[in-house]
From TrEMBL:
It comes from Kipferlia bialata. GO terms for molecular function: SNAP receptor activity; SNARE binding. This is Syntaxin-16. Its main location: Golgi. The keyword Membrane applies. InterPro entries: SNARE (IPR010989), Syntaxin (IPR045242), T_SNARE_dom (IPR000727). Keywords: Coiled coil, Golgi apparatus, Membrane, Protein transport, Transmembrane, Transmembrane helix, Transport.
Amino acid sequence: MTHKKYLRVRHRWLFNTAYWCWYTMSVSFDLSSEFRRLRADHKAELGARDDGMDDTESLLLADENSISEQPEWLQLANSVKADLTEVERNMTAVQQGRADRQRNILDDQLDVRLDVLTQKITRLFREATGKVSRMSRIPARGEAAVVKGSVVKTLSSQISNLSTAFRQDQAVFLRDLRQRSGVVRADSSLQDEETQYRESRLAQVLSAEHTRVEDVQQDVMNVVRSISDLGQMAKDMSMLVVDQGTLLDRIDYNMTVALDDVEAGVTDLTKSEEYQKRAKCLQNWTYILAGLTGLIIVIMVISKG
């Protein structure tokens, strides 16, 4: 009875241990699968963002039918590029007109057309500078802010280069006029002041945008560092799962060894019970033989007396 109770307690302990190990591992595997699912969702979200950012250059060259789907700063960038293209075309027209004027000094219509083109170029420069300034003030986040900052710097550099080239052409043209007639246009100083103001404004915009881009790049580096930390955590979790699997293997091995020991103990206990029964029978026969021997001796003594 005691042996059967011991076996029941032993088997109950083994069952509880195995169930606890299975439950622990199932929870760990559930957490691992949940982590993998969340990581896949995060990668999909990042992939969608990356795909959107890879199309930035194509969006800059998209047609006007897709403007409503573009962000405001990208619409301004397209508008600035169109203004700069118009400026280049008008600058070419101005150079051609000045060449024609040198061949035909008495044509007043050329002077009027050159004045109109010069005023138009100045207006386009002013509008492009204002649009770039508006772009720099439009908020953006993450990689979009980095791309916007790069676009602002590129457009500002293009405006500055075209403005410098236009100012040099104006200076050369005025120097030629001075050499020819000694007359300088009255509004040349005003144009120089406007050019200096425009260049100063562009320098301020470039400096502010450069600082903002550096801040955004630092934020991006922090995000990359946090993603790296998450990857290390995932590796640690995978190592933990492997360790748990190794622990489960060890527990399984120990359970197998314990079960073999229990079976061997049961066999030994069964043999001991058989030996005990045989010993009791032998002891009983010994007692009977001793009693019979004593009885025979008593009978013999009585018969002799």
